[in-house]
Design goal:
By secondary structure, this protein is an alpha+beta fold. 43% of the residues lie in helices and 20% in strands. It contains five helices and six strands; from the N terminus they run αββββαααββα. The chain has a four-stranded antiparallel beta sheet with strand order 3-4-6-5. Strand 3 and strand 4 form a beta hairpin. The relative contact order is 0.20.
């Protein structure tokens, strides 16, 4: 029984910190973007409270949170230093193909956790494997 519990803990959202407690986002959000072989980002989104259904409000809040988390991932990736001391941001300036590959990798990031607040806001945690990003970009990070 203990082994089954451990197996369940390793799957799903294991290792993804909960950002919502008692229906609200905490006052402090500790983020650790580099998690072993992954880059992780969170996004927080909301929607118009005048929308007629809870489903619509939650769906739009989730979409907004995903877009925000993707933006955060892109910001993190742009700051990464490649072999040779050049940042990804600098490399993107000269290689439009690289830019397309980076954006594709970020759009393909895995949604690790979706949490809703009591006011139908949303917090999403995205994760991107570093090795997949390196492979898609055709580079190695320092």
């Amino acid at each position: 029984m203990l082994l089954l519990g451990l197996a369940v803990a390793w799957g799903g959202c294991a290792g993804v910190e909960s950002r919502v407690r008692s229906g609200a986002i905490g006052e402090v959000i500790d983020q650790k973007p580099d998690r072993g072989g992954f880059i992780e980002a969170i996004g927080i989104g909301g929607s118009d409270s005048a929308l007629p259904s809870v489903t619509q409000r939650k769906a739009l809040a989730r979409d907004a949170a995903i877009v925000k988390a993707q933006y955060e991932l892109l910001s993190m990736v742009k700051g990464v230093t490649l072999e040779g001391g050049v940042t990804v941001s600098r490399a993107l300036e000269t290689d439009s193909g690289l830019e397309a590959r980076v954006h594709a990798a970020i759009r393909g990031a895995e949604v690790r956790k979706t949490e809703f607040t009591s006011d139908n806001g949303c917090v999403v945690t995205l994760r991107l494997p570093r090795n997949r990003l390196e492979k898609l970009m055709g580079v190695e990070f320092q």
